[in-house]
Amino acid sequence: MKTEAAILWEGEKQWSVEEVELDDPQPGEVRVKLASSGLCHSDDHAVKGDLPTAMPIIGGHEGAGIVEEVGAGVTRLRPGDHVVMAFIPACGHCRWCASGNSVLCDYGAVIMSGLPISDGKPRTHARGEGLKRMSLLGTFSPYTVVHQDSCVQIDDDIPLELASLVGCGVTTGFGAAVNRAQVGPGDTVVVVGTGGLGSSAVQGSRIAGAENIIAVDPIAFRREQAEMLGATHSVASMAEAMPLVTELTRGVMADKTIMTASLMTGDMLMPLMALTRKGGRACLTSVANPNITSADVVLVDLILSQKEIVGNVFGGCNPHADLPRLLSLYKSGELKLAELVTKTYSLEQVNEGYDDLLNGTIMRGMIVF
After folding, report:
1. Residue 258 forms beta bridges with which residues?
2. How crowded is residue 99: how many other Cβ atoms within 10 Å of its Cβ?
3. Which residues of 226-239 are buried (b: 16+ CB within 10 A; e: fewer)?
4. pTM of the full predicted structure?
5. 299: part of which helix (H) or strand (E)?
6. Rounded to an integer, what distance in angstroms lies between the CA atom of residue 103 and that of residue 111?
7. What 3-state class would DSSP assign to 210?
8. Which of 187, 268, 298, 304 is the most exposed place for a label (fewest CB within 10 A)?
9. Which residues make beta-bridge pairs with 133?
10. If we measure between CA atoms, which residue out of 191, 182, 181 comes closest to residue 311?
11. Confidence class for position 365, pLDDT limits 50, 70, 90
12. Nearest alpha carbon to residue 367 among 1, 58, 45, 11
């Protein structure tokens, strides 16, 4: 079928919306009619070159929609099912999936190739070339063909426009607090960077029972939004957070710190660890350029204060189990999703949406098909 998609071509610095040819689903695959796609900062990192990506590529990795057609051998889905795309698929049988860590599924080794799991051949074509897909999904298009292992079935009564948010940003941020940082009742938490991911880390901290949640962001609008979502305090920088956290904790410092800035550099680790108490945990969630091979840290403080540094991908979640659980929290009113979406866009407005994101005028933008 013919449809359209936002494509990043080699050497270009913005998305090009144009007609594409989409193949039928192959064995193990499904065609999904998408309702929406979130505008995640990671796609812009591909544009800027901070996230190495195969090109040409259809952007987008936060999507939700309805299954229209299934290929041979598809056993878990059927036409009419509502699904969220998981930007890390889960095979269910590798060592990591079998041990309950499907977020580390061996499929992760191929997602940046942008080519289908089953045979590595493009399913979408434009200008006579086969196109890759961001995280094997390519949700900057109203239709996509993906492997069933990238789809998580959800209840039909959940608004699909909002459900797409748990495909990456909400889950990654929420899980940063709940799973990786392990925020608990009464904790003091510092969240650095309160865009799409950080705002969800704030929500995760609130739902986990944190007493103090300090949102750190240079943009006043994002600080205000973080307070609406559960932050008890907000400041513009980690330097400003130091005296506040010192006062709130009587010098003990934060139990948990979470780095959710859009792009992390090596000099950001030392002030984060200074905000972290003895025996505390710092969770690093931001994208970092792969060329960065060193970071500033006071080793003796890390060692003798028994501080912990943990990484985070997709919130440490198991997509097929945890995405429906997050949507249950939305249905109960605990997890806010509609409040995250500052503005909606058409596919043709994708570059405008990223301009707004980079200018700090939106929390999360959403393409609605």
Report:
1. 191, 283
2. 9
3. bbebbbbbbbeebe
4. 0.94
5. helix 299-304
6. 12
7. coil
8. 304
9. 58
10. 181
11. very high
12. 58
Q: Is the peptide bond before 56 cis (omega within 30 degrees of 0)?
A: yes
d(CA 305, CA 280) in angstroms, rounded, equals: 9
Contacts of 114 (CB under 8 A, 6+ apart): 53, 54, 57, 131, 132, 133, 134, 135, 136, 138
d(CA 248, CA 251): 8
Measured torsion, CA atoms of residues 162, 168, 173, 176, in degrees rounded to the nearest 10: 140
Catalytic (active-site) positions:
40, 42, 45, 61, 168
Residue 118 is predicted with a pLDDT of 85
Please calculate the CA angle 15-19-23 and round it to the nearest 5 degrees. 110
CB-based contact 41:195 (threshold 8 Å): yes
Find, among 140, 154, 151, 152, the residue nearest to 36 by Cα. Answer: 140
